[in-house]
Amino acid sequence: MTKETQPTTISFQAEVAKVLDIVIHSLYSNNEIFLRELISNASDACDKLRYALLTHPELAKETGAFKIILEPNAKEKTLTITDNGIGMNKDDLINHLGTIARSGSAEFVKSLTGDKQKDMALIGQFGVGFYSAFMVADKVIVRTKKAGDTEGWLWESDGAGTFTISPDEKAKSGTAITLYLKEDAKDYLEPIRLRHLVRQYSDHISIPIELKNGELQETINSSSALWQRNKTDITPQQYKDFYHSVSHAFDEPWMTLHYKAEGAIDYTALMFCPTKPPFNLFQPDRKSGLQLYVNRVFISDDVPELMPHFLRFMTGVIDTSDLPLNVSREMLQKTPVLGKIQRGIVRRIINELKKRAEDIADYNKFWEAFGIVFKEGLYEPSDNREDIADLCRFYSTNSEELTTFADYVSRMKDGQQHIYYLTGTDLATLRINPQLEGFAARDIEVLLLTDPIDEFWVQTYTEYKGKKIVSVMHAAEDLDKIKPVHKETEKALKKSESDKLIAKMKEILAESVSDIRTTDRLTKSPIALITPAGQMSMNLERLMRAHGQQINFASERILEINPRHPLIHKLVGLLDNADMAEHLTDSIWVLYDQTLVAEGESVKDPAKFAERLSRLLMRGL
Ligand code: ADP
Ligand code: MG
Question: What CATH architecture applies to the domain 3-223?
Fold first, then answer.
C-alpha cells in the first residue's frame, strides 16, 4: 500500500459508541429492522439525488434509473445493499456514519441507563438507523462515491469503537453497503426471507428493490403506496408495519387515521399517533414526522407548514396531487395548498381524538404521553381552541383522576364565577399548598397545573365558555364573597392585636416581603406567601431561573397571616414580653423561611435559618 491509500482510523463519537453497544447487545431480538433501515437510507439517497437533478441536470450522466439492489452471497456470507443515489464523500462518511447529528441525541443517549429492558424501550423511541447494521453484521463495509465527484471511498468498521476510511478507486456512483453476517444472522442470506421482509416493511418504497440471486434479478417490492389502497384492503398488521417503517419506531400506533379528502384540495392522509413519545419531541429543530408526497413521489420529510406545533407527535404520509412534482422549498413556504391541507388534517385529528376520548382509560394513555405537547394548542389563537380545550385533561383537587374543563364547570359551587388553578412543579406539593385551604373550606375545586407550558397558556387562554380562568393567588376577593362550608371554630385576633403583630412583622421582614395582611383564606396554615395580580408567579420565576434566565427583580410577595391560627395567637402573646424579643424574632423568621421551603423555594440565608432553628429547638426541648 502506498502512503496515500493507508486507511485513516477514526473513533466513533462517544454517543455512537454507546448506541452501538446497546444495538449490538440488547436490541437483538428485533434485528430484522436493519433491512428496512438500510433500504430507507438507500431510498432517501435516491430521493436526494432526484432533488439535486432539478438544479444540476448534468449529474444524470452517471446514473441510470434509480434502483436498490439486495445481493446475498452465500459463499462469502455477506449481504450487500446497493443504491445509485446521492452517495457520500469523505466528510459525509465521517459526519453521517461516525456521529449522531440529530438534535438532542447527545442528551438522549445520556439518558440511557445501562438497564437492558429500559434502554431497549428508549432506543426504540430514538431509531438507530444505519447503526442497526451491526445487529446482524460483525463487519460492515461501505463503498461510496458522491454524485459529481471523481473520488470514491471505502468505509469499514466492526462497530467496536473505530472505523477506517480509505480512497476506493472501484467505488461506483452511489453507495454499496456490505454486511458480513454474524453466525446467527445467516438467514438473511435466504432469498425467501429477504423477499418477505421487503414485502413487510418496504413494499411502499417507490424505487424498485431488486433481489439479485445468482444470475437472476427480480423486483420484489410492489412500490404500491399503502396509503393509496382502500382501507378495507389493508390489515391492521399492514398499518402497523407501515407505521414502523415511516416513523422508525417500535411501539404500537395509538391512533391510525387514513382518509382521502376531495374538494378544494385533493389529498390522501395516512397518519399515526404513537403510543410512546419520540425522544426528541422537545427539540426546537426537530423535523415534523409527516412526509409529503406529490402523486406518490416523495418530496420532503421536513415540511413544518403541514402540521401545527402542538400536534408534532403525529407521523405518517400526506400525498397530494395539487402541487407540482418539482416543487421547491421556497414554493412550499409560499403555496396556500399546505395551509389548506393543514387545516383539514387538524380538523380530522381533533374529531378522531374526540371519539377516542369517550374511552377514558384509553384516552388518558394518550394524554399522559402527549398532553404536555397538546396543551400548546391552547396557547396559540386558532379556530379550534374550544375543541382543543375540551380535549385537555387536568388534575384537580376534586379527585386523583384527570378531569376536563366541562366537568369542572359542572361541579362549580353556587356563587362561584371563575375556574381556579394553581401552578407548581409537582402534584404532591401542590395538593398540600396552603393557598388551597380557603378553597377547600368552601369546597371549591382548583385545577392543579404542573407542566411548564401551563404557565404560558394560562396567560393567553383566559376564558372557557364564558368562565374566566383565574389563579388562586388572585382570588382573595372572590373567596370573600363565598361562605366557608365548615364553620370556623377558632376565634380570630382582634383588629388591634393583628395590627400590632403586623407592624412587628413588617419591621423584621421589611426586606423580604412587600406587604403583610390578614386573610380569611387560610384554615390550616399560619401564614402564606402570594404574588399580586399582574406579577410573575413564583412557579414561573423558578422555571425561568431553572432555564438560566436572569431575573433582575423578584416579584413582590405579600405575606398573609391567618388570624385564627393558634401559632399566630402565640406570637401575639409574645409581643409585649421584652424577655422574649429574640424568641419572637426567631419565630417570625423561621415561620417565613419554612413557608418558602414549603413553596419549593430555598431560604436566602441557610446559615442564619439553621442558627435560629436550633435556638428555637433548645428553648422547646
Ligand atoms: P437518518 O436516516 O435518520 O438520517 P441513519 O443513521 O439511517 O439516520 O443515516 C445517517 C446518515 O447517513 C443519513 O442521514 C445519510 O446522510 C447517510 N447515509 C446513510 N446511508 C446512506 C446511503 N445509502 N446513501 C447516502 N447517504 C447515506
Ligand atoms: Mg435512516
Answer: 2-Layer Sandwich (3.30)
